[in-house]
Design brief:
The structure is a homodimer of 472-residue chains. Chain A has 472 residues and is an alpha/beta fold. Chain A has helices at 3-15, 28-42, 46-58, 66-81, 137-141, 168-184, 224-236, 287-305, 330-339, 371-381, 400-404, 419-422, 435-454, and strands at 86-106, 112-114, 116-118, 125-134, 152-155, 189-193, 219-222, 240-262, 267-277, 315-322, 346-351, 359-364, 387-388, 410-414. Chain A has 13 helices and 14 strands. The first copy, chain A, starts with a helix and ends in an 18-residue tail after the last helix.
């Protein structure tokens, strides 16, 4: 068979199911129940109380820190207090990174402090050197090897403010790729304008890693006012900076994914997954990142769980509080690895991890036979001001590894206009959450989860077999 | 003479001048010149460049710190670069307070850091104690002596946001009076919700002093999110905090008021005073407090100074960059003391020390014979969006000691809606200033100073004789 004929045959296979498949549908009773859940959620304060409790009683909870273990105990107790039918933990092991102290100063004729924070994964060390400013990451990447010998590279790129949060793509790229580019050019330290949109003296941390084979150098982010200041000083003439970081990798740590379930009415072994991540960075109290996601998903499950058993959805609602998302999706990857053999029993999943701003759009990428059911869910969400938009992306960070092995994902897109004002900074605190916006999120998650869990038919996860085990 | 008759006679004396006094008037040529100055100032960038230079090249410049001396040298050089006719300094001596380090942590079951800053004037020391929260200052003031033995008092009062900035009255009162009340009740430490209106993790510093005879205790302000957090934790149960401050008074320091003059056309020994304060707190770069005031007043004088000599106002424009306003108006008081014998040669004064927000109202409290001239000035300011409002208060902090001994003051009231978001915090940085708003301030100060300096007649300063020298 020629290649073109083969391609035509394959296209036919893909577009025309071999078996005429029944469309996935959601029954009227489920629509009625989800509508009531949605409206009740708008007046319910559970998510607020959960988020308040986590951010107050545990506070900052960086993965591997003493507060990580307190957060796990808190989550177990909270699931139980909220009446979940089953509560358990699953281990998640990762390298531990510690931040002990950090400071920076301009030296010379204009001495003054700079507000910096070490990027997660930075080695410790103190460097005093002239700063070389780059207006783009590409400019640093084009620097000749050795050209920054004995210098500190400073990448001064402003990420844009966007309602979708997509401006973070640029900011996180500067954080992820910049340090390695600096090492390749010979730099002994790396500074960047924070991946953030606010003009407060709060630098934004976040994980970064060096390419294999490179010798790590101290790396830190400047607050936006400090990046402005350093750019002005560098424009006046050669500017030396002292960067002193005491931090670094220190062994391994085993935390836990904490999981709570509301058992399904008739298909208890099939699950709809919702969740957020339990860890936070250490600088703030992790309210928008991701206390809100924990509060929203725990509250959504709780509202479904308090229904009479006969009115529960057919499938189980599984709420996952993921361990260590911040340093590399360790919780999500561990869950996917542990559950890959049963991934086809995961009906669909959604993670809340973009703060507590209003949800404005919904979609799920599913086969044609399930599109009507997605539209049915969208209809229930519409009164919340949520549009059914085909371009809405699914999958939060921790559920993306499930999606990669076959689970369908729903996207509940939040207004992230202000999210990157606070993200990964000391300013990520409870006061940044609007209780009414938080409740709108719960309403959407509760209705979505209920409807997906009660659908007659699936959303496509069963289409893909789990990957074969690796060959020996 | 009976008392009532005496009072009636005195009232007659006050309301009816013994000599029929010519009303103070401003000539048409001056109105034309000031109108041109006003409009030119709106397009001029001098104030921005001055403020940028001070906040970038000197940066934070707390009174008595090494940066204080750098600021003095900067101001002398800047006056000269701006073409001022005379530039000189006058010494200002004050006790020196130093901030070296500061931290606070919640202890016990919910351990976490709190963002605090020592209040200026705090002694150093480390205390670990239970926190007792007071919702009002009055509640603390009512606490029985000894009732806070071994405790940390926490006054949790939110100052209101107001366009005029008057909410700061409450905030600064809690800062000024709270520590002494805490000592009287036996407390070993003092914490307060910052006198601020923002919800960022930046506590607001500011001076405080203990009443004579009381033993000072460590005193610090919490950022608003941290005050919220501590209030929530205290509501959960007894909450212990460790407050560790390394700071304190350390000898004396002599700084300088830096003064620049644009010599008057025909009455060079009579002066109109404008200015701001050169010192800042150490946490930010002192952009709105008070780099803006320095920029506005230096630029206003500069714009007048670059006029042809024949078009200058009759009197001299004296621009004063005051030393150490923050810790007790030391610069203003030193100037008043040094110049009290010549206070009648001070036509009128105005200080810019409420940031760089737009000026929305103008007035000067003057005798009846000078009110028409004030109205003439108001007419020139009106196109800037500045209302002539009788209730507008005059005198900035540093010029108030001049007013006390007889100098008239003008009030150019600024929109302070956002001022207390940044005031006395690390967030007081250049990016908080809108160049167009800054230029509107310069336009108002330049027009006001020109018109006042060219008025035919005075604004009442000559009515009061300087106080008699103290008796030996």
């Amino acid at each position: 068979m020629r290649a073109t004929a083969l391609a035509a045959a394959l296209a036919l296979l893909v577009s025309t199911p071999l078996l005429a498949r029944q469309p996935t549908r959601i029954g009227d009773a489920a629509i009625t129940q989800a509508t009531q859940l949605r409206d009740a959620a708008l007046a319910d304060k559970t998510a607020w109380h959960v988020t308040e409790s986590l951010t107050t009683e545990v506070g900052p909870r960086m993965a591997g820190s003493p507060a990580d273990a307190r957060a796990v105990e808190w989550a177990k107790a909270m699931f139980k207090a909220l009446g979940y039918d089953k509560v358990w933990t699953e281990p998640v092991t990762f390298p531990k990174w510690e931040r002990r102290s950090e400071s920076a100063q301009v030296l010379g004729a204009h001495p003054q402090p700079l507000h910096v924070t070490a990027l997660g994964g930075s080695p410790g060390g103190t460097v005093e050197a002239e700063v070389v400013r780059f207006a783009t990451l590409e400019a640093l990447e084009s620097a000749a090897p050795g050209s920054l010998a004995g210098k500190i590279a400073f990448v001064d790129v402003q990420m844009p403010r966007t309602p979708t949060g997509e401006g973070y793509g640029l900011g996180s790229h500067v954080r992820g790729a910049g340090p390695s580019a600096a090492v390749k050019a010979g730099a002994i330290g790396y500074l960047m304008r924070s991946a953030g949109t606010d003009f407060h003296r709060n630098p934004h941390t976040g994980i970064s890693r060096f390419q294999p084979g490179l010798t790590p150098i101290p790396m830190a982010a400047l607050s936006l006012p400090d990046a402005d200041q350093l750019a002005r000083l560098a424009a006046l003439g050669p500017t030396r900076v002292k960067l002193a970081l005491d931090c670094g990798w220190n062994g391994e740590y085993t935390s836990q994914n904490v999981i709570g379930e509301i058992t399904g009415r008739s298909k208890p072994d099939d699950v709809v997954v919702i969740g957020g991540h339990l860890d936070s960075w250490d600088l703030g109290t992790g309210a928008i990142d991701d206390g809100a996601g924990i509060g929203i998903s725990m509250a959504a499950g709780h509202l479904i769980g308090r229904l009479p058993k006969a009115q529960r959805p057919a499938r189980t609602i599984r709420v996952i509080a993921f361990a260590n998302e911040e340093q590399g999706l360790f919780g999500g990857r561990a869950y996917a690895e542990a559950h890959k053999a049963r991934i086809t029993r995961h009906q669909i999943g959604a993670e809340s991890d973009l703060g507590a701003g209003r949800i404005y759009a919904f979609n799920a990428k599913v086969p044609d036979y399930a599109k009507d059911a997605v539209a049915q869910i969208a209809q229930v969400l519409a009164p919340l001001g949520i549009a059914h938009r085909e371009d809405t992306e699914g999958c939060g960070p921790d559920t993306s590894p499930f999606n990669a092995i076959g689970m369908a994902c729903a996207g509940l897109a939040q207004d992230a206009s202000k999210y990157f004002d606070y993200h990964h900074t000391p300013d990520d605190t409870l006061d940044k959450i609007d209780p009414a916006e938080l409740a709108q999120n719960v309403a959407a998650y509760a209705a979505f989860a209920y409807l997906a869990a009660d659908a007659q038919g699936d959303f496509g996860s069963a289409l893909k077999a789990p990957p074969a085990p690796p060959k020996k």
